Amino acid sequence: MKVMKNASSVASHAACNLMGNTNLLLETVTNFIPLSPYKPFGTYVLCTGNGKLVILRNPDAVLQLLFYSSQLCKEEECTDVAQRTLQQHFGYESELQDSFQMLNEVYLEPLEQLPLSAESTSDTATVNAALNDLGLSTRARLCLRAAGELEKRKIANKDSIDLKKTDIEKAMKYLLEDYQLNCRDRG
Questions:
Q1: 97-114 pLDDT, tens per residue?
Q2: The organism sits in which domain of life (predicted)?
């Protein structure tokens, strides 16, 4: 239970950072709970338990998804969790193989357009069904959206820098030539 409380703090801290929350109280979390340097990478493929494969690449979204999909509905479930987790662990390989044969995959992209509600519309029915199968709440979906928005911002910033790169390089070349010229004149 303590592990999940700490995981909750870490996931909440990460979610608040993703959403741009400026509350200074959040900074005190790191004073009490050492935040893990762990950051997922690569492509994550999760089985929903009914033949669907959920595929996700965004590392911030993976962290949120892993946390929220491991939540208990009630505290009474604690006694059953260990047994159920072991059964799922041992059966995961065969479930994964079965899912690969069915080719029923759902890519959670673009994250910023994920449905917040468990109610499905025709254009989001497949994604919504996968999110429901993972048991994701509205809060979890909001965190996934925030991770998508953050990734979009990072890409936009990179593109902006790439556009300015040639101008920056020209200015740096001019400054370097000017510096070299001044050094030659002095020396």
A1: 877 777 788 999 899 888
A2: Eukaryota
